[in-house]
Specification:
two-stranded antiparallel ribbon; 2 strands; about 120 residues; mainly alpha
């Protein structure tokens, strides 16, 4: 019998993440999350009432916190209620901030980040 040795299979290297890229992505994720929280809070302040359509203004017209008379900060929503839209936007903003700071370097981190954005 001949002595045949099975060659060792090299281990698959872990994906390499650049520290600068991670810093930029985390910073942008936090900024987008803050913007989402801003929109969510302003939409929630409009109360539990239906939206006029899919395009809404986060700053509603005629409120004391609104500088513009017609409202402002347009946003797209699939939820036909200002309060629910605001709560969802705020929660997604918080989740995006946490994900950007804590989990972006994980194997599925970039994929989940893109789904959240």
């Amino acid at each position: 019998m001949t002595n045949h040795r099975i060659p060792a299979v090299p281990a698959v290297p872990a994906p390499h993440y650049n520290a600068a890229t991670r810093a930029v992505v985390s910073t942008l994720g936090v900024l987008i999350g803050i913007g989402s929280i801003n929109h969510g809070l302003l939409e929630s302040l409009q109360g539990n009432r239906p939206t006029p359509g899919h395009i809404v203004n986060a700053l509603g017209p005629g409120y004391r916190w609104t500088v513009w008379t017609q409202g402002g900060e347009p946003a797209f929503t699939l939820v036909p209620n200002f309060l629910l839209t605001g709560l969802l936007a705020t929660l997604l903003g918080l989740l995006l901030i946490v994900w950007s700071l804590r989990y972006i370097q994980k194997p599925y981190g970039p994929t989940v980040f893109l789904l959240l954005v």
